[in-house]
Amino acid sequence: MNDRFRDDEGRPLLSPYLITAIVVMSAVVLSVLLWYVFGTNPGRFGAEQTAGEEVSETAAYAEEENEYPFLPATPEAEDGSGAAGIRKAEDYMLEISEEPGWHSDMYGWWYAPASGGIYYCGWAEIDGQTYHFAENGYASIGWTAIGGEGYYFDENRVYQPNESKDLLVALTFDDGPGVYTDRLLDILEQNGAKASFFLLGREIVKYGDVIPKMVAQGHLVGNHSYDHLEMLEQDMDTVLDQFGRTDELIAQYNNGNPASVVRFPYGDYTKEQCAAVGRPQIFWDLDTFDWDTEDINVIRQNIYDLLTGGNIILMHDIYESTVNACEVLIPELQSQGYKFVTAEQLAASRGYTLTPGVTYLSFKNKNIEEGRVTDEGE
Fold first, then answer.
1. Were both Cys, which of 39, 76, 85, 362 would link to 35 (CB 3.0–4.6 Å)?
2. DSSP state of 64
3. Annotated catalytic residue 103
């Protein structure tokens, strides 16, 4: 034994049994610490995971005296492209999330790995299927922009890596609602197609009761001003009043919610006006000129001449000829592989999250390659 453990007469200061006990206890304490750091949090110090890699055990969740070691989402992927974290459920979720598993409310679905916690901001594998959760904890569904790429999740929220985005297009309808809008909604529903409607306040006064049907069917509701004025000739107060009055009318039919996107009349605007209105603006890259010809064959030909996929198509649901054309065109184009989605879904399929004050011009591959998706560089 080392001399520092003996007294002046050579007798041990500590009993060999005591020394052995100290060594054993130290080993136990060290083992517990290592288990807590690595055992309860597997994957915390692992590599970042993406949708292209197998997502398994994205985060561990252990119960210990009713306290849970919640895990942050992958810190290198705040855009949700990494492994999901686990956090405490929001207060309005807690009552529903008392049991582990899937839960839902009017806004969507979330998953509780254990009572009181939810996945958020990233990817997670559950029962052999891959899912994605937004920052608010709700599971992604439909086309979703994640880390600058578009991913598709089916109606059960399961990631479908083989879903093609090449032939997605957005039908957009201006100047309604009108007398033919209800029939158009029936045509869209019969064909499983989605569209975007840019509504005028003065027409909502007459036909606003069709808006709940738009919302229920999953279409995008946009604001096209109140009177369809040439906004370049108006002062800012008038511009804001035109969109503000229409928002109030839309909200009356849309569970209190105003339009989430806008389109300026005639496509004329300044960036200052767009920023002040405070919503993304959806432009178009394919004009059917239905407003000029009101001819089904001309409308059809104008679409076929320019359609490539990724297009934003301009039409008007106030014309019977346009609705008649849609009745023929939609199933015809679907038979060729085209799919009709909202402008927001089209953007998400290309990896874009719509930003307030920005105008989106097109989501064609050519525009993406040339950096002409928005007006930000103009």
1. 39
2. B
3. no
Q: Determine whether 166 is an active site residue.
A: no
Contacts of 321 (CB under 8 A, 6+ apart): 290, 294, 295, 296, 299
Catalytic residue among 103, 219, 224, 316: 316
Which of 103, 174, 219, 224 is an active site residue?
A: 174
Looking at per-residue pLDDT, the higher value among 91 and 339 belongs to 339
pTM of the full predicted structure?
A: 0.81
> For residues 118 and 86, is the Cβ–Cβ distance under 8 A?
yes
Bond from prior residue into 72 cis (ω within 30 degrees of 0): no
pLDDT tens by residue, 19-61: 455 544 555 445 544 444 344 333 332 333 445 444 434 444 3
pLDDT tens digits, one per residue of 304-326: 999 999 999 999 999 999 999 99
* Contact assessment for residue 87 and residue 57, using Cβ atoms and an 8 Å cutoff: no
**Cα-Cα end-to-end distance for the chain:** 82
Cα–Cα distance for residue pair 196/223, rounded to 1 Å: 10
Name the residue among 177, 102, 178 with its Cα closest to residue 138. Answer: 102
Q: How far apart are CA 208 and CA 298, in angstroms?
A: 30
Instruction: Please state, in angstroms and as integers, the Cα–Cα distance from residue 94 to each residue in 103, 107, 172, following that order.
Output: 10, 15, 39
